[in-house]
Amino acid sequence: MKQIIQTLLFSSVTIFITISLIKFPDETLEASIRGLNLWWEVVFPSLLPFFIVAELLIAFGVVKFLGVLFEPIMRPLFNIPGVGSFGWIMGMASGYPTGAKIASRLREEKQLTRIEAERLVSFTNNSSPLFIFGAISAGFFHDAKLGILLAVCHYGGNALVGICMRFYGRKEEGSKVDKKKNASLKRAFSEMHETRLKDNRPFGEVLGDAVINSIKTLVMVGGFIVLFSVLIKLLFLVGISSIIAVFFEVILLILSLPVDYAIPFFSGLFEITIGANMISQISSDSLLQQAIIISFILGFNGLSIQAQVASILAKTDIRFTPYLFSRFLHGTIASLLTVILYKPLYLDRQVLDMEDIPVNGVTSESVWLDVFDILNRFGPIFTLLFLGLAAILLYRRTTK
């Protein structure tokens, strides 16, 4: 019976989307182009280098080297091996869904157990500094100082989530205690060397696999970005967003937040960029209210990011449920941190900058805007070059 209900549900939703696409072709095309431009200009060129480097570092044993050195930190804090530090650092540097990508690769390499991989995924899917400072703070709000508040709450909240999730799965792991040796440069280098020797592929093949695997993942990410951009537009056009927004209005009233944020909040739960942009366009006397909602959306990741993560994890035995739970936890913690740190990290800094160093905010803002400008100019060229390279590599392998 359950399977029959699922079949009817999936079929109905698919038919509804198909009819909506036929009814609103112009609006659908516009939404598709908007999502494609985001992937084409920013997402692909900003994430591809991190993905390729991550594949190479895993293949050459550098991750194993870092794992030995960071074991004394990662095991007590997050109850995962030291190799998890690589996923944590890369996740913060490059943004979604790098944490899931690295966790799945480490699981495939059997450097993590399933429980450890699920713990790692729960707190390593961060928003990138480029997105927080460049897109949201400088781009949407035109206030670079807001980025400091959002970044501290976002990354600090994720670290607290990792500490909370260290207790996850302890019963399933059993009473086995994994006793690790102290950090040692000699042992770290020895394990790195052994890991490299186990990989018999020549350098050219390692590099080619890194490029192809990374591009495949990013093409999948692009598909989800376009899909959810279209879905959000369709929900608006058929009036479903307004109906669901009533439920969010009740939640916002309970939290003493303006009901005007209901639809932007709902949109942000689907796709972060669209929701954050809509929130920034609402005039408000208090920036704190906007910062609270955006912090929750960033922590929740958005259904678009969650779908990307689910797709990546589906190739392994890592379960999606712990990650989903941690997203609600992260959103809640980040929002609470925003309330607590709003005065010391934003209001007090604003006063200091106005009195003492009035050019700081302008300089910081211009740096991130310059980065976005560079991506917008040269991102499509970068994307084309590597898509062409991937096509050549795949062609050569299929003709051998």
TrEMBL record:
Keywords: Membrane, Transmembrane, Transmembrane helix. The chain crosses the membrane at residues 7-24, 44-70, 120-141, 147-169, 206-228, 234-254, 291-312, 324-342, 374-395. Residues 42-137 form the Nucleoside transporter/FeoB GTPase Gate domain. It holds the Pfam family Gate. It comes from the Bacteria. InterPro entries: Gate_dom (IPR011642), Spore_IM_YlbJ (IPR014226). The keyword Amino-acid biosynthesis does not apply. NCBIfam families: spore_ylbJ. This is Sporulation integral membrane protein YlbJ. It comes from Oceanobacillus bengalensis. The lineage of its organism: Bacteria, Bacillati, Bacillota, Bacilli, Bacillales.
